[in-house]
Design a protein that fits this description.
The chain has 317 residues and is an alpha/beta fold. The chain has two domains: 116 residues, 3-Layer(aba) Sandwich (Rossmann fold), CATH 3.40.50; 183 residues, NAD(P)-binding Rossmann-like Domain (Rossmann fold, 3-Layer(aba) Sandwich). Helices cover 31% and strands 15% of the residues. It has eleven helices and twelve strands. The strands form two sheets. Strands 8-7-6-9-10-11-12 form a seven-stranded parallel β-sheet, sandwiched between helices. Strands 2-1-3-4-5 form a five-stranded parallel β-sheet. Strand 10, helix 10 and strand 11 form a beta-alpha-beta unit. The two termini are 21 Å apart.
Length: 317
């Protein structure tokens, strides 16, 4: 089997091994592949592994050898699933590998908003403490999480991991999710969307992006939130109307936002949320701990093994 990875650098910049995948065939790894290079690099592949490279109907029709596509990600909107199915190409994604890491990032962002560790460390390094007449000082109000309400939009694997940590902090947890027939996890109250916005002291977004929820963080819903509330988005940038969020932050409608995703990635240098007060932005790396990326590569290896043995798993087509 010829196995080709088209854009492997972000998942494995060199600190991990591709051995689990390599044992299943002749492996060729490319760090990055431009759209104009995809066909030439993929034309002999029986198994193609992609992260963000776009595999559209026209391209798939030209890849005569292709039997299986594996994503180095959970999302697969970059692949024309209908076209793959028509051609009998199996598509497998990677599910659940990043849940602990993303949940950890939620609280990294939240704790920076509430405790301002970075701000205070910088002030100490600049001798503000050494020059202080008092033994202690605060550059901004500090917020205790115990007793606050964590609201979770999307109660999948990551949302449930976030809930566990919130409960450990002494927070109460409310949530909304699309499928309300699933069993409710212990100590989590399922609420209507409007109640979620109104009651959350922290609102964390974890639902997949769809036509129904695109821009759900908008002026209408932000107006329902407490002026002391924080928004955390480690889900998808498209869940947030960024112009509406900027206005809400500048007007003090909410206390702050922590974002690991934006609507355009990488963002333009003049992105409207850059340098907005009380808006933290990290470069879509919540998923990218070493442990998480190792799990991702192993899941892809297992998906390939399942395909070769006729025991398919994580199939989306």
């Amino acid at each position: 089997m010829n196995i080709v990875i088209l854009d492997g650098f972000v998942a494995n910049p060199g600190d991990l091994s591709w051995e689990g995948i390599q044992q299943h065939g002749n492996l060729q790894v490319y760090d990055r592949t431009k759209a104009t290079q995809i066909y030439e690099r993929a034309k002999e592949a029986h198994i193609l592994i992609v992260n963000k490279c776009i595999l559209n109907r026209t391209l798939l029709a030209r890849l005569d050898q292709l039997q299986c596509i594996c994503t180095l990600a959970t999302g697969y909107n970059n692949i024309d699933i209908a076209a793959a199915k028509e051609r009998g190409i199996v598509v497998c994604n990677a599910v659940g590998y990043s849940s602990p890491s993303v949940a950890q990032q939620v609280f990294a962002l939240l704790l920076e908003l509430t405790n301002r560790v970075g701000v205070h460390n910088e002030s100490v390094q600049q001798n503000a403490w050494a020059n202080s007449i008092d033994w202690s000082y605060c550059k901004s109000p500090l917020v205790e999480l115990s007793g606050k309400t964590m609201g979770i939009y999307g109660l999948g694997k990551i949302g449930q991991e976030v809930a566990k940590i919130a409960l450990a902090f002494g927070m109460s947890v409310i949530a909304t999710r699309k499928n309300r027939t699933k069993p409710r996890p212990a100590n989590i109250q399922l609420v209507a969307l409007e109640q979620l916005f109104k009651e959350s002291d922290v609102l964390s977004l974890h639902a997949p992006l769809s036509k129904e929820n695109e821009g759900i963080i908008n002026t209408q819903h932000l107006a329902l939130m407490k002026s002391t509330a924080y928004l955390i988005n480690t889900g998808r940038g498209g869940l947030v109307n960024e112009l509406d969020l900027k206005k809400a932050l500048l007007d003090g409608q909410i206390a702050g936002a922590g974002l690991d995703v934006l609507s355009q990635e990488p963002p333009p240098k003049d992105h409207l949320l850059l340098n907005v007060p009380n808006c933290l932005i990290t470069p879509h790396h919540a998923w990218a701990t070493s442990a998480s990326r190792a799990r991702l590569i192993q899941i892809v290896a297992d998906n390939i093994k399942g395909f070769l043995e006729g025991k398919l798993q994580n199939v989306v087509s």
